[in-house]
User: Which sequence fits this backbone?
């Protein structure tokens, strides 16, 4: 059975920067959980960041690939540089995926770690820009397809192709 890496906050774990969860009510995720497919993971906590913590964004909305290459940093709203923690968290997510043979992830959209289609633009004004988070970029670079929580139908279609 194919396993699916999933953002821990989508599974009801209170790991977000504000100490809350973003629990998904998606029936397919619930079914996958019952089947034992899901491997919940929070890269930010795994990277050493506390709960709660200041919000963080990738400077200039540059995207996760820029952070991975050293061309951009992840900054917290208090001005601190949390790039090292985001990189450690991304590596932790990749290690967890590899340990379970995972080829598919469903992650929290908009997150500077997990965003699949969009991230916040680095201004801390609530504006989003197209792009990927640090963990998503690393997973994708290593052949793991990442979908946001609003793309679960597409994720399910991809999962079917993996199991045939």
Assistant:
């Amino acid at each position: 059975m194919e396993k699916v890496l999933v953002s821990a906050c989508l599974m009801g774990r209170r790991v977000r920067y504000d100490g809350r969860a973003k629990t998904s009510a998606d029936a397919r995720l619930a079914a996958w959980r019952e089947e034992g497919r899901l491997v919940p993971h929070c890269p930010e906590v795994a990277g050493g960041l506390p709960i709660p913590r200041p919000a963080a964004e990738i400077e200039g909305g540059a995207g996760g690939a820029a952070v991975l290459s050293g061309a951009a940093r992840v900054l917290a709203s208090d001005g601190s540089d949390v790039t090292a923690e985001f990189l450690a968290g991304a590596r932790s997510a990749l290690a967890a995926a590899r340990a379970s043979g995972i080829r598919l992830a469903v992650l929290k959209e908009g997150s500077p770690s997990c965003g699949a289609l969009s991230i916040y633009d680095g201004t801390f004004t609530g504006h989003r820009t197209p792009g990927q988070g640090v963990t998503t970029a690393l997973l994708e670079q290593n052949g793991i397809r990442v979908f946001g929580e609003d793309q679960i139908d597409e994720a399910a279609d991809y999962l079917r192709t993996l199991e045939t």
Summary: The first helix runs from residue 27 to 34. The two ends are 11 Å apart (CA to CA). The longest strand covers residues 4-7.
